[in-house]
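Field: COMPLEX_INPUT
Field: COMPONENT_COUNT = three
Field: RESIDUE_TOTAL = 280
Field: MODE = joint
Values follow.
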Amino acid sequence: IKQPPSNPPPRPPAEARKKP
Amino acid sequence: IILQTYRAIADYEKSSGSEMALAAGDVVDVVEKSESGWWFCQMKTKRGWVPASFLEPLDSPDEAEEPEPNYAGEPYVTIKAYSAVEEDEMSLLEGETIEVIHKLLDGWWVVRKDDVTGYFPSMYLQKSGQ
Amino acid sequence: IILQTYRAIADYEKSSGSEMALAAGDVVDVVEKSESGWWFCQMKTKRGWVPASFLEPLDSPDEAEEPEPNYAGEPYVTIKAYSAVEEDEMSLLEGETIEVIHKLLDGWWVVRKDDVTGYFPSMYLQKSGQ
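Field: COMPLEX_OUTPUT
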């Protein structure tokens, strides 16, 4: 299995935003 | 190893080669979870019947796979009636004896009755004598 | 068993439950070829990294999987600068010491510096002392 991408993943999609 | 199964809640477009695109609703198995928030997943294997005519071989797409025609003809009998939809098809009733000339892979075989030839669905044909 | 691999040359919509839809370009393994022209295929397994935030568990989607927050905070240091894109994110330079409050699975951790908290990419953080 290759390494994960070297940039962070995107923020959660609008459907899944949690309150801070 | 039992992998956890997840569902995509939104579409995701790849932004690099090692990523996998997601369509909302896709079901995946999670192989590895990185703290970075990237999870290595495997799409749940989809399986099912598809029309052969919609497929081409991955290598040498022009390579002929079709069997050779048999102009002498092989006797078959219709087990279900079918009315031609397109001009190059045959209309036959159930129980008619015909000759199969060419068993094309897409399931539409070239058949001959008397001096008329045309396409007919192979699933409505049965080898004579069976 | 070595299966033959084919490519879909056109989109195909399912018309019954045992069929599989195809998108032009899909690559499939052929498991079984019926003379009817229906071939039983398996979609080539796609694998790759996907953002965890785009997935939900297949069973009990509301079940909380996230770890508990740690309000005392765990000391980490930034190994790469990042400028906030959204309002709830932190802007930090490389080499700054912060406290991680909540290690969310999507890879965007809640961090605190002095009295300010916000999201920061976990892949730009390293545990202090390592």
